[in-house]
Amino acid sequence: MKELEELASLGGVEVRDLLNPKSKAFKDTGADPEKVTSSEAGKIMVKNPRAMRRPLLTDGNILVKGFEPEEMEKLL
Hints:
- By secondary structure, the protein is mainly alpha-helical.
- It has helices spanning about 1-10, 25, 40-45, 70-75, and strands spanning about 55-60, 65.
- It has a single domain (about 1-75), classed as Glutaredoxin.
């Protein structure tokens, strides 16, 4: 879970913001995306990484989560 916290901090977001509420893996949990805590989100993603937003790109200083072409271009 520490790795998820470090990854989230690169993006200036909470661990729960790395979760993809539209993914089947997340929907299968039955959790409410508006009410899930960062701790719960971390447990969900550790158990099933497909519940995480993808792609995740980082240069070690900046994190781009999800498919955001303009942000991806800045990083590359």
